[in-house]
Amino acid sequence: MTVPRRTKAPSQADVARLAGVSQSAVSRVISGDAATARIPEETRRRVFEAVRELGYVANPAARAMRKQRNNLVGVHTFERVFPHAREDFYFEFLLGIEERAEEIGFDLVLFTSTGAGGDGERKIYRNGTNRLNLADGSILLGVSTDRGELARLWYEGYPFVHIGRREVPGAEIPQIIPDYRAASGQIVERLAELGHRRLGYVREGIEMEPYDDRRTGYAEAVERLGLTDTSPGFRGTPNLDPKWLDEVARGGVTAVVVESVRLAQELRAGLAARDRKVPEDVSVAVLEGAPADLDGQWDSLVIPRIEIGRTAVDWLHAMLDDPKKRTESLLVPCPLIRGTTITALR
Amino acid sequence: MTVPRRTKAPSQADVARLAGVSQSAVSRVISGDAATARIPEETRRRVFEAVRELGYVANPAARAMRKQRNNLVGVHTFERVFPHAREDFYFEFLLGIEERAEEIGFDLVLFTSTGAGGDGERKIYRNGTNRLNLADGSILLGVSTDRGELARLWYEGYPFVHIGRREVPGAEIPQIIPDYRAASGQIVERLAELGHRRLGYVREGIEMEPYDDRRTGYAEAVERLGLTDTSPGFRGTPNLDPKWLDEVARGGVTAVVVESVRLAQELRAGLAARDRKVPEDVSVAVLEGAPADLDGQWDSLVIPRIEIGRTAVDWLHAMLDDPKKRTESLLVPCPLIRGTTITALR
DNA sequence: CTCCTTTGCTCATACGTATGAGCAACTCAG
DNA sequence: CTGAGTTGCTCATACGTATGAGCAAAGGAG
Predict the structure, then answer these.
(1) Nearest neighbour of B58 by CB, restricted to A3, A128, A172
(2) Which of B302, B299, B304 has the alpha carbon at shortest distance from B340?
(3) pLDDT (tens digit, 9 = 90+) per residue, A281-339?
(4) Can you point out the beta strands (E) in A84-230?
(5) How many angstroms separate the CA atoms of B47 and B54, rounded?
(6) pLDDT score recorded for residue B340
């Protein structure tokens, strides 16, 4: 009871044969060019009939070769996707990418190409070939992005966007970036509205591009609003300086902006040791996504990962039609979360 | 400081021109066919020189077209992947699929095709066309698999495997299935080794293919080892029958095999109400993945999801080269977990 | 100086799709 | 009943790569 089964995917030529027309007619019908090509309803029907019967679907390789469109969005991560999906890093980006791709009728290619070593680190270029070319354009993401490869990719003119900030000298990489600068500014504005005049800033020890944005946004807002920044940590030593904490406890600073939850917790502990409470004595805001904990919700910002994923798809989509866009980056607003760690100045 | 960017990637023809040879010579040098093709070292050097100078990379679309292979594995889920990835259903399968695909140099296409309704339910065939054809072959998974679509896909000869059991009349769907039958048999064997002679089986109310395998495995082993099955639930009423529980409590049954954790918990409660303890008075084994809880670890089996994902890729890979394999299914062994709910008969 | 073998390539073609150019048949105005 | 315009297609070709077939030149045997 084995049914005869085909062994090779049908081509337009097969469809054409069945429908009794030429291959080019089939192409025109399928690609919707029928109007310009003056194909009457009846012929179209026959062609679609044959398509259905044979289960024809366009060969992406051939289409990519001839056209410059596959309706495929590539996703390249510089590490494996799924082991990390659990942690929130890739997961929500992919969620947004999948959602939006589905909406605009694109499928997703997950590039899994590895480098030579089995260390899980991935490369775009493997023995000289760039597999991304199969997709119309790609979304790249990852913490360990290889800048050399990015530069080469950009130079070759391949359409792609990078999720997250990544500066590469000599190339203008299109990036989708959370607008930390604006968000930081807004937090300062809110503090100013609540009467705070003397602020502090606590920064992380490591240097990464996204922190620059936060610092710039903070500094600009402080300047613009005529406030005073009194933190040695801002331009000097990174972490929490005991002497400065003493000053905060004395009331020399009424609101502190910190770069991470970890630092915020340290700050709270340091103040508690000096008999000061958050937010009664000092308001605190956090410049990253800060989940609620036992002590309540930090006033903080949200990294809109899903939205970023969706935006990346749209941005890439726009780039495909307009090569001029291939050097433009995009900022995605970061919503603020109202928490319980900021109050009005007494 | 904008660098001049190429619009078009260089082809083998460009390389050939620069190296002063023909396109086919370039192809042979690059594809390593040079030995057979008798190209001397000097010419090869010139070609590679030109390749370097132009930054040539092979066009994967063209290569795929010529080779009739895209090196793409499709993944189609009948529901959205990512929202579900969190829950363990898809997640570990995908993990295995990605791992293995990476190892054998295949990329993944995630099909995002939706059906008509925006209800998140997905279809393979959209307005009559089969989008899967884009990939060389596909792995299908999902709880709400549409049997009609499976049958059609199979009939069309498209290479695919289904993860999990799914019987479709008239089609021999290649499936990757956890070997519940063998695992159930092994559990019975273990009980027999520990001295148990009178067993019971508690089954779920719903009927699904995977349960058939468990029941068969149990029944076969009981028969083979000359044991006695005394459960009304096995062929009669599904759940836990109070009268039968009384009999178990009386000692008429010393070991019980149940289909789910939920039933195992009910069983334990029912026995506790009759002053009997697990495993002191009655041994209990569970025929599904049963995480450890406060009361310890169930003797149970593991559904090797990662391994299944990996196997699915390999199986599909083999099918691509050998069409005869397109009707064969594969069993993946289920390891047993030693827990604290089985002991030797006193 | 023949004839044969080996070397070092080139030629031609196929893969499946998209598209500019063009052709035959028909319609309709004059 | 002629000429122009429209309709409904087909023809031919290009895209970039891989590969079987084949050809010219060089080298060697006799």
Answers:
(1) A128
(2) B299
(3) 999 999 998 888 888 899 999 999 999 999 999 999 888 877 777 778 999 999 999 99
(4) 107-111, 125-126, 129-130, 137-141, 160-163, 175-178, 198-202, 228-229
(5) 11
(6) 94
CA→C1' distance for B134 and D10 (Å): 28
Give yes or no for a cis peptide into A279 (omega within 30° of 0).
yes
Cα angle at A226 between A220 and A230, to 5 degrees? 80
Greatest mean pLDDT among A12-21, A28-37, A158-167: A12-21
d(CA A14, CA B122): 28
Tokens of A181: 């600068």
**pLDDT tens across A122-151, in order?**
666 665 566 777 788 899 987 666 778 888
Distance B83 CA to C4 C1' (A): 72
Specify the DSSP element, H or E, that contains A39. none
Evaluated on CA atoms A175, A179, A182, A188, the torsion sign reads negative
Inspect the interface and report whether the beta carbons of B6 and A156 lie closer than 8 Å. Answer: yes
Q: Locate B97 and state its tokens.
A: 């699929």
Total residues belonging to chain A: 346
Residue B320: how many other CB atoms lie within 10 Å: 15
DSSP A142: -
Sheet strands (E) in chain B: 72-77, 107-110, 125-126, 129-130, 137-141, 160-163, 175-178, 198-202, 228-229, 255-258, 283-286, 300-301, 330-332, 336-337
